[in-house]
Structure formats: structure tokens, C-alpha cells
Fold:
Amino acid sequence: MRLGEDAILDSTLVHAVPRNPNFNATGLVQLKNWRGIRAQNGGTYKYAVASGSIIAEPQLPQGYPELTSGSGSDLAQQILTAVETKKSVGTRVECHFAGMALVQ
Structure:
């Protein structure tokens, strides 16, 4: 699929310390060099292309038990546990496309 864009703004790549060898004040990176979002604790990210951006949504680790129906308080506890586990994987990130002219 050709997106028509050559660069992306990824806020997770911002390193604003000027003397840092990885200095990147904007998070701008060429799309061909973008590695995606790094998940934590065995989780992954699922990606979707939207108008002008890529959305990365954290996913629960493989093998995580599916929610089961049960009593109200039991189901509520399962949902709270799943939400906390998903938060430990990472946060939802939206990366915006940028033109190649911005990449040096």
C-alpha cells in the first residue's frame, strides 16, 4: 500500500536534550526507518491507518484470559484487571504523517 507520505511524527521518539546523540526535538523520522511503537510486558500494538495518521493501540499479551460472563462484581473485576494489564503494555499513540521535505 502506498501512503503518499515519506515521514512520520512520532511523539515517542522526541529526545529534547540538545547534547544527546539521539536529539530529535520533533519526533520526525523517515517512514522507511520507523520501527513502530515498542510494547512492554509481553504485549503488542495493533496499527490502523487513518486520514493523515497511523494509530497504534496497545493489545493484551498473547494468552491473556478472555473476559467471561459472570456476576456484575466478578465481571467488573475482570475488566479492571484487563484495563490495568493493557495500560502496562503502553498507551494509545497517534503518529501524524509529514512530507519528506521536512526530513533532513
Q: What stands out?
A: The first helix runs from residue 72 to 89. The chain has a mean pLDDT of 84. The radius of gyration is 18 Å. The chain has one helix and five strands.
